[in-house]
């Protein structure tokens, strides 16, 4: 399949997803492989069903993995793996990270 | 065809009925936009009696339930609810299920896309009789209350105690001499409660709920608007993408399974496909405002090649555009990409991160009420 013009977008996103999923599984001891975690899965409440302590761990995980800050009012960012990745990409773009 | 215990009230309110997998449902009562606004801005009341509902004695029926559904039933703590699925022998979806641990009983709710006969056959084969299963489908109504003000309605009827119920939990409340099982759940992104009410009080409770809902600016809703609400909140909908795709792995439902469980319906087929690796995956898609082309069944194109197919769609009244879920090859299943829909020259659509809306309920703190 010809992916030409979108391959770089995919690669950049795939790298962040892979890093985040591996760290999430390791830190929270989740019984899944990275492939088992759909990127739209809800992190809190339904889906993975993580609690507020887990949410804190996720924030620490994101901040240490990607060297970015997560604001205190972070409900919108932590809704799914994809929303976390969007925030990381946005922050990296602002910092000029390729 | 099964009819609801609440049909008289629904008909009196002007509901339009249709059939859904062997059950008669109130499809809509008012316009879609009006019912949608009721849930997002106030509270919507919906008859969910099309779901199958069973009582399973805890001690006698634990093993039966555990080999039936994909999730781990013995791990459900007292008072909590497991969201899981029911599959057939081929590992294809048959039902979206809640299993509630209510002390000496489990309450098993199943939103099924199988016929009544197929579902009953499957339950019998799994040992329903020996497990002492009691079918509550004809003797109880299931009422859904959803919306940013849903908590206020259940508080008025059952007391302030309900505010302490966490998401996916069950509690029993007395109502006019009967017991109503209240489950905090919901698939709209707003506050959601399911009430399992016996025939003796269900119509009266439904009347009281209608009054309480109307006084808060809400209204009676049909089941169709829940398709939109589920998609916007990225809750799995067995009536939409579930019915069209049926493979729980492609749908990203691994979180509803216990991957270490040695036995459940469809386990071997699902594990076989998991071992072979995922080839397709479901992704959110959004159209440009005003574009109507993003409809279920439409093909999605990249570089003049068909690469995906829309499997669920809705009009998002919050985002003012059409939203969809589409199945793509895994190498293209990422948000942030641009495609064409309908044909190689069709309107542009973008894959998006889900859920794309921020519900009002996420800003309400029940513990401060």
Q: What would you call the structural class of chain B?
A: alpha+beta
Which sequence of SSEs, written as H and E, runs from N to C of chain A?
A: HHH
Number of strands of chain A: 0
Find the CATH superfamily of the largest domain in chain B: Probable tRNA modification gtpase trme, domain 1
Give unreliable regions of chain A as ranges. none
How far do the termini of chain A sit from each other? 25 Å
Treating each run of at least 4 consecutive H or I residues as one helix, how many helices of chain B?
Answer: 10
Which descriptor suits the 3D outline of chain A? globular
The sequence of SSEs of chain B as H and E is HEEHEEHEEEHHEEHEEEHEHHHEEEEEE
Strand content of chain B: 25-35%
Query: What would CATH call the class of the largest domain in chain B?
Result: Alpha Beta
Per DSSP, what share of the residues of chain A sits in E-state strands of 2 or more residues?
Answer: under 5%
Q: Quaternary state, please?
A: heterodimer
Q: Give the helix proportion of chain A (percent range).
A: 40-55%
Q: Per the principal axes of the C-alpha atoms, what is the gross shape of chain B?
A: globular
């Amino acid at each position: 399949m010809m992916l030409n013009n979108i391959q770089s977008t995919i690669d950049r996103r795939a790298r962040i997803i892979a890093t985040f999923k591996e760290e999430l599984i390791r830190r929270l001891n989740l019984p899944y492989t990275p492939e088992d975690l759909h990127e739209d899965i809800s992190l809190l409440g339904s889906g993975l069903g993580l609690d507020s302590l887990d949410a804190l761990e996720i924030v620490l995980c994101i901040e240490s993995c990607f060297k970015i800050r997560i604001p205190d009012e972070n409900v919108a960012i932590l809704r799914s793996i994809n929303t976390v990745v969007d925030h990381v990409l946005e922050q990296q773009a602002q910092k000029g990270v390729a | 065809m099964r009819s609801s215990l609440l049909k008289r009230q629904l008909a009196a309110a002007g509901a339009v009925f249709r059939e859904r997998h062997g059950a008669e449902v109130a499809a809509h009562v008012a316009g879609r936009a009006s019912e949608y606004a009721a849930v997002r801005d106030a509270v919507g009341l919906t008859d969910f009696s099309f779901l199958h509902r069973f009582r399973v004695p805890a001690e006698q029926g634990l093993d039966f339930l555990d080999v039936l559904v994909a999730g781990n039933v013995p791990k459900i703590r007292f008072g909590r609810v497991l969201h899981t699925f029911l599959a057939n022998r081929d590992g294809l979806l048959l039902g979206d299920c809640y299993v509630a641990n209510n002390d000496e009983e489990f309450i098993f709710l199943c939103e099924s896309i199988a016929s009544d006969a197929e579902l009953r056959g499957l339950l019998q084969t799994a040992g329903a009789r020996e497990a002492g299963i009691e079918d509550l489908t004809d003797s109880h109504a299931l009422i859904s209350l959803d919306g940013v003000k849903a908590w206020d309605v259940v508080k008025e009827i059952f007391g302030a105690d309900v505010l302490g119920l966490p998401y996916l939990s069950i509690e029993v409340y007395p109502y006019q001499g009967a017991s109503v099982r209240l489950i905090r759940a919901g698939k709209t992104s707003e506050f959601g409660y399911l009430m399992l009410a016996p025939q003796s009080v269900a119509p009266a409770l439904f009347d009281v709920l209608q009054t309480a809902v109307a006084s808060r600016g809400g209204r009676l809703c049909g089941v169709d608007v829940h398709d939109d609400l589920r998609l916007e909140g990225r809750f799995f909908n067995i009536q939409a993408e579930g019915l069209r795709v049926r493979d729980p792995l492609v749908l990203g439902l691994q979180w509803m399974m216990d991957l270490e469980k040695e036995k459940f319906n469809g386990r071997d087929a699902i594990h076989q496909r998991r071992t072979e690796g995922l080839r397709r995956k479901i992704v959110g898609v959004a159209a440009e405002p005003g574009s109507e082309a993003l409809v279920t069944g439409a093909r999605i194109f990249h570089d003049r090649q068909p690469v995906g197919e829309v499997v669920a769609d809705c009009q998002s009244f919050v985002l003012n555009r059409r939203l969809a879920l589409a199945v793509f090859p895994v190498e293209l299943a990422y948000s942030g990409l641009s495609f064409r829909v309908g044909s190689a020259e069709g309107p542009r659509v973008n894959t998006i991160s889900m859920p794309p809306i921020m519900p009002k309920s996420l800003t309400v703190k029940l513990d401060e009420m």
